[in-house]
Amino acid sequence: MRNSFLRSFVAITLILVGAALVLANIGIIDFNMNNAWIYIYPVLFIIFGLKWMLDKIRYNGGSWIFGSFFFIFGSLLLFDRFELIEFTFNDVYKLWPLLIVYIGFSFIGNSQKRSKWNIKWDKKLSKKNKVKGNYDSSFFSIGEHEFNQPNWKVEAMNLKSMAGDFYLDFSKAFIPEKEIPITINSLAGDVHILIPENIEFRVDASVKAGEIDIAGRKAEGINRHLLHETVDYETAIKKLDILLDLKAGSIRVVTV
Hints:
Pfam families: LiaF-like_C, LiaF-TM. This protein is of the alpha/beta class. 37% of the residues lie in helices and 32% in strands. It is built from four helices and ten strands, in the order H-H-H-H-E-E-E-E-E-E-E-E-E-E. The protein has helices spanning 2-25, 37-57, 64-81, 98-128; strands spanning 135-136, 145-147, 152-153, 157-163, 166-169, 173-174, 179-195, 200-214, 217-229, 239-255. The strands form two sheets. Strands 1, 2, 4, 5, 7, 8, 9 and 10 form an eight-stranded mixed β-sheet that branches. The chain has a two-stranded parallel sheet with strand order 3-6. A hairpin with a 2-residue loop joins strand 8 and strand 9. It is elongated and about 70 Å long. The two termini are 19 Å apart. The relative contact order is 0.08.
C-alpha cells in the first residue's frame, strides 16, 4: 500500500511539475526550477489531504478533519501561486471558521454513536419480545452504520437514516442457514456492501438521484432501479434478501 501511494505521489508530482513548466514556457505562469518549491509544497498538502480522506472512505484509517484541512489549505496556497486569490502560508489563521464546521461534524459523530447505541438497545428490546437478534434504527438518526466486526451475527435488519453511510461486510460475518431480510432506507448517503461469493443473495436497489453498482451491473442518473438475483437464490437455504432505497447517494454491492 505504501509503495503504491509513493509511486502515485511521485507520478502526480512529475505530472504537475511538467504541466507547470509547459505553462511557463508559453507565458501563462512564471515558473522555473528555482521557484518550483513554492508550487510543489502546496501540491504536497493537497495530495496528503486527499490520501487521508480516501483512506477514511475506504475504511483504512485516515481522517476527515486533517484530510480536508490540508486539502483546503494546499488548494488556497496553489490558487495564490496562480494569482487567482491572495493567500500565503501565514494566512492559515484565516481558516479558523473550519473549527465551527468540524464541531458540527463532531455532533454528527455523536449522533453516530447514539445510533449504534440505539441499535444495541433495540436488539435488547427485540430479545425481550422474543424476536431475537433483529437490528433496527431510527429514521431520525444521522451518521454511519458499520457492521464489520469479526464474526458478527447476521439477523434481520431494518436500518433507517436521514443522512449517513452504511457499511456491511458479510465476509466477516456469521450467516445463519435461513433467508435473512436486510432493509436500508435513507434520504442521503452511501451504501457499501461486501458479500462472499459462496452466499446467494438478491438485491432490489433504488435511488432517486445517484448511482447503483451491483456485482458489476451499473445504473446512474435520476430514478434508477436495479434488481439483481444470483443464479441459485431461490433454492438456497442460506441467503440474503436485500432491499435498498436512497433518495440521493450511491449503492455499491461487491462480491468478494
